[in-house]
Amino acid sequence: MKIISQLLCLLVVSVTAISNAAPAKPNIIVLLIDDMGYECLGTDGCTSYKTPTIDKLAATGVRFDYCYAQPVCTPTRVQIMTGIYNVRNYIDFGAMDPKCVTFANILKQAGYATCIAGKWQLGEDLALPKHFGFDENCLWHHTRKGSRYMDPELDINGVAKNFTNKEYGPDIVSDYALDFIQRKKDQPFFLYYTMMLVHAPFDATPDSKDYGRKQPKGKKATAPDRPDGTSQHFTDMVAYTDKLTGKLIAKLDQLGIRENTLLIILGDNGTQRGTVTYMGARKFIGGKGLPTDAGMHVPLVVSWPAKAAVGKVSRDLVDSTDFLPTVCEAAGVPVPAELKIDGRSFLPQVRGEKGSPRDWYYSWYGAQKEKGITAEFAATRDFKLSRDGEFFDLRKDIEEKNPLPVKSLTGEATAAAKLLQGVLHQYKNARPAALAMPFVGHKAKGKGAHNVDDANKVDDNSL
Q1: Do 277 and 312 share a domain, yes or no?
Q2: What is the pTM of this model?
């Protein structure tokens, strides 16, 4: 009996040692900011707004200078969640094909507690969040499209809830997200925090002097009201985004789990069309809805104290299909091969390694299925080639005003055109026949022709 007892003790000690040696799965948080373009963060050169919390995360973690999303909300969200370009699975604005497999489905299957808190805009069926892998949810733009800011209309785990005492929607969602973290702190969790800020209308936050007051009749939801042409309310909204990010960090610190929490912060598309922001002397105009740098270039900051490089700035390209493989690699979970995703993990770069950075990113942008494709192109950091043959040197023409004839190109532009033509050829027949849409182009004119503003307007009408 004594020998058996000793053997059992040795077995317990061995199992404990193995358990202690095995690294704990990291907690993972993807914080998606609504309508925040690259120009809005101090760490990226913004001088109009203050973002000290996110700037500090960038200074102590990793900042990516070349991250590209889709021009409006739903298309980006579908790419982020599935790792697949819209050409292969996008069905319509405000919806996601129920056949899609998301990063939450994969992580939940691997034992993660999962939650989505914030903006949904992926279909009205109450069963969809669970279907797409989320155990819990606190959502705006699920079954209803009322206010997202003061006195919001939310759906919380399938129950419609209206707030009428001047509560602030982003605060309610933040509180829910932090409560989820508190409850799940002793197991690996995945939080997809789809913040409702900083989308129009540019309205007062609880930190604004005029919070709770009615806006003057006739005032535009995005009207500038400062001498330099910027908006005070938008300035307040960016500051409040940073404040809520600070609350998230404080909760992780309080619980002692920040060290092993991977936090990824990015925008879902460019800033609201026409929004004025300064980057030093440069006056930047928001271009949401446009298939250009102003509509698709978004900030990306990654913090993971236990694993991330410190103070690294990466020039590697990242696009919105890359987030699913990145979070799966961080969790140690293989991506099912049958999904045939388009994204590639940028986790090695987060750790300070070379990784396998992409040479190009691709965009197929269709606003609504009944109207057609408005833009399809492939691009590097410096060059862009569209399906209809327009080639741009982005180093000299970031606003894409002067297309260059491909036959006239020389040197590295010629090599880039060849590379990008190969990418376009790769995706030429990628659209499933059942989802086929006509290509009309963003410059189409005439009765019934598609306009690139359509999806932007649809999104803005859901305020």
Answers
A1: yes
A2: 0.92
